[in-house]
Amino acid sequence: MQRKLCIIGLGNWGSSLAYAVIQAGMQLDEIIVPRLRSSANRREWARDLPLVTLDRARLEADVLWLCVPDSAITPMADRLVKRARPRGLQGKIVVHSSGALNVEALRVAARAGALVAGIHPMMSFPSRTPVSLQDVPFGVEAEAANRRALHAIVRCIGGRPFDIQAGSKTLYHLAGTMSSPLLVAHLAAAKELAARAGLNLRQAQQVIEPIARATLDNFFLKGDRRSFSGPIARGDVQTIRLHLQALEPHPILADVYRSLARYALEAFPAPRRKALRASLKRK
User: Fold this and answer.
1) 247 with 257: CB under 8 angstroms?
2) Using an 8 Å Cβ cutoff, are 73 and 106 in contact?
3) Which of 100, 121, 231, 251 has the fewest CB atoms within 10 Å, measured from its CB?
4) What DSSP state is assigned to residue 70?
5) 169-179 and 181-196 helices, crossing angle to 10°
């Protein structure tokens, strides 16, 4: 049985979800937004979306999928419960998309009779331009009673569902944070260092792009150990000292360097490990 969906929120993630649902030919009953805007201002694919404000929402869909910031999940669930009175949310599945929060954030919906779940896409959504969900991993936190139905929805929009336990979600979300926003921060730090070496920003990006792309390809094709190179892999204490000397005027960048180098010393084989560890200590 195909289930009807209601999406709550049309931000970066909500836009990608709505697009994927439409492309999959699923039943998108309504999209709840804070305010209605002219369809002329929407992208072509979004012009006929069934937008509605919460005070006009029917809430007749089988699945109510919250695509709102983490801090808004519980308040929005509370508003949904109030809007659904007097019939409540009995028989409906209420889903949030947080990677860090578990289903406790939807406790008020569960008390109103809903089955609750968390479905988090491990993907970056930097703008409202829809991102393909094909082969995107989705962490699903759900009771056995509704897990199969939610896995089917994820597969229908192109994703690859896997089960995640409530107690593991924060570490799981941390893995995603390290893989995307903090990876961007790491690359931005590398570009800043190239710029401080005298390159303009365009040149700095051109310099780091080939090595960064090659490293990512190697990491995922050959594994981490076969991708690791450079002064730590060689046990080159003198180069590490030169790096830290150059970073003395830039304490934040120096902290980033030390933290990653210490992790590398623990994670990968390295000659002269003791000397390398000593060279990373602050003076």
Assistant:
1) yes
2) yes
3) 251
4) H
5) 30
Contact between 24 and 158 (Cβ < 8 Å): yes
Q: Measured in Å, how far apart are the chain's first and last C-alpha atoms?
A: 66
Please name the residues in contact with 132: beta carbons below 8 A apart, sequence gap of 6 or more. Answer: 20, 158
- CB of 83 closer than 8 Å to CB of 54: yes
How far apart (Å, rounded) are the C-alpha atoms in residues 247 and 195?
Answer: 14
Show Cβ contacts of residue 125 under 8 Å, excluding neighbours closer than 6 positions. Answer: 12, 13, 15, 16, 131
| Amino acid 38: pLDDT | 66
Question: What is the chain's percent helix, strand, coil content, to nearest 5?
Answer: 55, 15, 35
Q: Decide the pairing of beta strands 137-142 and 115-121.
A: antiparallel
Taking the C-alpha atoms of residue 118 and residue 138, their distance in angstroms, rounded to an integer, is 10
pLDDT higher than threshold 90 for residue 155: yes
DSSP characters over 222-244: H-SGGG--SHHHHT-HHHHHHHH
Instruction: Kindly tell me if the per-residue pLDDT of 40 is higher than 90.
Output: no
Is residue 169 classed exposed, middle or buried when 0-12, 13-18 and 19+ CB atoms within 10 A define those classes? buried
Q: What is the pTM of this model?
A: 0.90
pLDDT of residue 102: 96
* 181 confidence band (pLDDT: 50, 70, 90): very high
**What would the mean pLDDT of 100-105 be, rounded to a whole number?**
96
Distance from chain centroid for Cα 241: 36
Residues with Cβ < 8 Å from 184, sequence gap 6 or more? none
Task: Give me 260's structure tokens.
Answer: 């990653």
At residue 230, does pLDDT exceed 60? yes
Cα separation, 213 vs 208, whole angstroms: 9
